[in-house]
Amino acid sequence: MSSTVLVTGAGGRTGQIVYRKLKERAEQFVGRGLVRTEESKEKIGGADDVFVGDIRDAAALAPACQGIDALIILTSAVPKMKPGFDPSKGGRPEFFFEDGQFPNSFNLLPSVAAAAAGVKHIVLVGSMGGTDPNHPLNSIGNGNILVWKRKAEQYLADSGIPYTIIRAGGLQDTAGGVRELLVSRDDELLKTETRTIARADVAEVCVQALQIEEAKFKALDLASKPEGAGAPTSDFKSLFSQVTASF
Questions:
Q1: What residue stretch is flagged as signal peptide (predicted)?
Q2: Fold classification of 3-242 (topology level)
C-alpha cells in the first residue's frame, strides 16, 4: 500500500524536489505539499494536494495532516536583506527577520506534533553547525537560527514519534545521484573539506528514509564527496546503517 506523505516547505528549493520525487513514485507514495502562500502553491503546479497554511498553527495544519502516514519538514525561518546595501561600497549586508518570522517561532514543533497526531514517521531537515553557538549563521538578524533548529530537533527526538533528523551541509543547486554521500555526527564533517551537498541528494535521502527501517530514531549530518571522487551512493540501507546517533 502507498503511504500518504506531507511535505512542509514544499514551495522552497529543496521542498519542491521532495514533493516532485513523491509524485513521481505514485506506486509508493501519495504526496501532499504545504506552502505558506497561494503564490507558492501556483509555483509548484497548484494541485489540490498542495495546502496553504502556517506550520505554527495546528488548526490550519489539520486539513493537510488528515490521514497522513509520514511528514517531511523542510520549513525554516528565512532572513531578508535590509534595504539600501550597496556592494560597490564594500562591507557586508545586514539581515533581519520580518514580524512573526523569527526563528524562535518557526522552529519549534508542538503545533506540528499536535496536528499530525498518529503519524508514523517524521523526517526533519536541519543544518549542520548546531553544536557551535557562535556559528556565523546564528548572528544573522540576531536570530540564533541554529540554536532554535537544535531545540526543534530535541523536541522531536523526545516526542516518541519515529523520526529521522537530517542535518545537511551547505546546499547546492546541482544534479543529484552522482556523488558519494557521507554521514557523520556532531558537526565532524565541518572540520573536513566535504561540507556541501546537492539539494537533490538531500531530497532523495528524505524519501529513502521513509522506506528504510534503519533510518528511524536516527540523527545524522549529511554531505557528499565531490563529483568523481568515490562511487555515487545507491545503497541507502547501508548509508543509514552507518549512523549510530539518536541525536
A1: none
A2: Rossmann fold (3.40.50)
Which three three-digit cell numbers place residue 85? 546595501
What does the angle CA 7 – CA 133 – CA 194 come to, to the nearest 5 degrees? 65
Residue 76 bridge partners (DSSP):
none
pLDDT (0 to 100) of residue 96: 46
C-alpha 145: how far from chain center: 14
Provide the 10 A C-beta neighbour count for residue 43: 14
Residue with cell 495546502: 51
pTM: 0.86
**Catalytic residue IDs:** 127
How confident is residue 98, by pLDDT bands cut at 50, 70 and 90?
low
Please report, for the chain, the start and end positions of each structural domain, with discontinuous segments joined by +.
3-242
Whether residue 111 contacts residue 75, with contact meaning beta carbons closer than 8 Å, is answered with: no
Task: Decide: helix, strand or coil at residue 6.
Answer: strand
